[in-house]
Specification:
- The complex is a heterodimer of chains A (246) and B (324).
- In chain A, 84% of the residues lie in helices and 0% in strands.
- Chain A is globular.
- By secondary structure, chain A is mainly α.
- Chain B is an alpha/beta fold.
- The chains are: A mainly alpha (246), B alpha/beta (324).
- The interface between A and B is medium-sized, with 25 and 30 residues.
């Protein structure tokens, strides 16, 4: 039955490239990301380092990924195609997984396109590859957590703008909870358990840890749980809608 | 093929289905009629597994629509209202996608798609994007995706709405052909469609079934239409003669049943509203009029139509609704 997920996956991925979304998103995302990181790397630091790239990436995710995920369910609901999709002999979980993996495959492709940057840098100086590859992996997992949240919001509404705003706000909160200065602030002002808990839910913390090149199993488990939780919520939304309104 | 018992569905406080029961046997083409919001689409959404009922039971091809939703969906082909399609896809890619997700084995896929394309007359547009097609063709793509896995049951929600008259005739013909191999349940607002394509009619009103039978049965269950006469002769005398005739005959009516409906130049239209016409009555009327030396210009039976039945059943609130 996993193959039915694959059918959804293939159709979704193909549809990105049949519509302008894949191209518009890809071009904008890459332009902004590469411009910012090239500027600070080459102009200001003049170092062959990917540091700036991975510094800007989470922020660019915050701006761009909700735009990519807002349509995943909201559009199907608006056009009515969801009615056919959910009456095919497929479990809701398989559809959710197929859609999620399609976005992830597309994002992996876009990230792959940025490989020109480390390759260019390696021509000018020596690039330390293991941390760079680790940071790429962290970037993909981090994107996964954003996509899972954005897709969940999209399943709750047929209005894409509502999905977009809800995603941006909730992701900004989750993101900032792991931001160093806020961690410091919480650490100083809140009981340690609360501060740790708040910090512990933020995907940003685990992103930084993997991006540093430290491969701790717990970080990967965290991302698996985080994505799993929101994808499961997404399935629940589909179930509840089936029992109530559709 | 389809068994529905006391099916109920509430949307919050609104009761869309107030417990409907019906069954559809193999090979039938059943037309669902009813005003907007009567519960036609809700019933179809439940039978296809898109919505879960709040009460009652639905069985399609031997499988319960709630407990065995996946098995039900496998044996149903569904065309939702307004034909939602992934318009960025090509017709052939779209049909291949549906065939695959519906579990059609890879080896049989191309022949089954070919059959659907041929049945629905899509041969000329398989390479086109769905977004480029006319509404009629989109409708055919919608029908093709519903039949591509050759399901025993087809559920079509307003398959002809929004089409022009020529397209309606084409799609109707197509449904007739599909009815030869599939059990079909369709909903529509067009009464002629039901008379032409359906073997049975179910009229739904405010979440309840108010009529179930063949179109002919529904029409004949209505009180018989009045006898309409156009006569040239002195009005008071004609009226008196007709009243005497009706009172004398055993037709379940009295003298009040005779009325003047229209006065024309040189003739008058009369209507004799009798609930059942004794075969002798028209003959007696004709004989009397001719014997009296008047001219009988026209004699006909008022024809009850499915439209009359529909209006009568769906304009009056049901008992349940007037109570609540």
């Amino acid at each position: 039955m996993a193959s039915r997920s694959l059918v959804v996956f293939r159709r979704e991925l193909k549809s990105y490239f049949l519509s302008p979304i894949a191209y518009v998103f890809g071009v904008l995302f890459l332009t902004v990301l590469l411009f910012l990181s090239a500027q600070s790397t080459l102009v200001h630091n003049a170092q062959a380092s990917m540091q700036a790239f991975f510094l800007y990436l989470p922020w660019i995710y915050l701006v761009f990924l909700p735009g990519l995920t807002m349509r995943l369910w909201a559009e199907e609901r608006k056009l009515g195609t969801i009615e056919l999709l959910l009456t095919f002999p497929v479990q809701p979980g398989q559809v959710v997984l197929g859609k999620f993996l399609a976005v992830m495959a597309y994002l992996a492709f876009v990230l792959l396109l940025t490989f020109g940057l480390p390759l260019t840098l390696s021509a000018y100086g020596s690039v330390d590859w293991p941390p760079v590859l680790g940071a790429y992996l962290a970037s993909l997992l981090f994107a996964g957590s954003f996509v899972a949240v954005g897709m969940f919001w999209s399943s709750l509404t047929k209005d894409q703008i509502v999905a977009l705003l809800a995603s941006v706000v909730s992701l900004a909160v989750l993101f900032l909870l792991g931001y160093p200065s806020l961690i410091e602030f919480f650490g100083a002002n809140l009981p340690p358990i609360v501060a740790d808990a708040l910090n512990g839910v933020s995907p940003f913390k685990y992103f930084q840890s993997i991006a540093r090149g430290v491969f701790d199993t717990r970080d990967f488990v965290y991302f698996a749980c985080f994505c799993g939780f929101f994808l499961y919520c997404n399935v629940l939304v589909l179930r509840v809608r089936r029992d109530s309104k559709g | 093929m389809i068994e529905v018992q006391d099916l109920q569905k509430s949307y919050g406080f609104a009761r869309a289905l107030r417990g409907i029961s019906f069954s559809v046997s193999k090979g039938e083409v059943v037309g669902f009629l009813g005003p907007n919001g009567a519960g036609k689409s809700t019933t179809m959404k439940i039978l296809t597994g898109y919505l879960a009922p709040t009460g009652g039971r639905g069985v399609v091809n031997g499988h319960d629509v709630v407990a065995e939703s996946l098995q039900v969906r496998e044996c149903v082909g569904y065309l939702p209202e307004s034909t939602p399609l992934y318009s960025e896809m090509r017709v052939d890619d779209y049909l291949a996608f549906v065939a695959e997700i519906r579990g059609v084995a890879a080896a049989k896929r191309s022949s089954k798609i070919g059959r659907a394309v041929e049945l629905c007359g899509l041969g000329a547009v398989t390479g086109k994007n769905i977004s480029e097609l006319s509404k009629g063709y989109k409708q055919r793509v919608g029908l093709a995706q519903a039949i591509v896995h050759e399901p025993p049951v087809l559920i079509l929600d307003e398959p002809t709405s929004g089409l022009d008259p020529n397209q309606i005739v084409e799609v109707r013909g197509l449904i007739e052909r599909l009815g030869e191999e599939h059990t079909v349940v369709l909903s529509t607002h067009y009464l002629q469609e039901v008379e032409k394509t359906c073997t049975r009619v179910i009229i739904v009103h405010q979440g309840e079934i108010v009529a179930d039978g063949t179109a002919a049965q529904l029409v004949s269950s209505r009180p018989e239409g009045a006898l309409l006469l156009t006569i040239r002769g002195p009005e008071p005398e004609v009226l008196a003669r007709l009243r005497a005739l009706v009172s004398g005959a055993d037709v379940g009516a009295d003298a009040d049943a005779v009325a003047v409906t229209e006065r024309r130049e040189g003739s008058v239209d009369y209507s004799v509203a009798v609930s059942s016409v004794d075969g002798q009555l028209p003959e007696a009327v004709v004989r009397q009029i001719v014997n009296a030396g008047w001219d009988l210009l026209a004699l006909r039976r008022e024809q009850a139509s499915l439209e009359d039945v529909f209006r009568e059943l769906t304009l009056t609130p049901t008992a349940e609704a007037s109570r609540g």
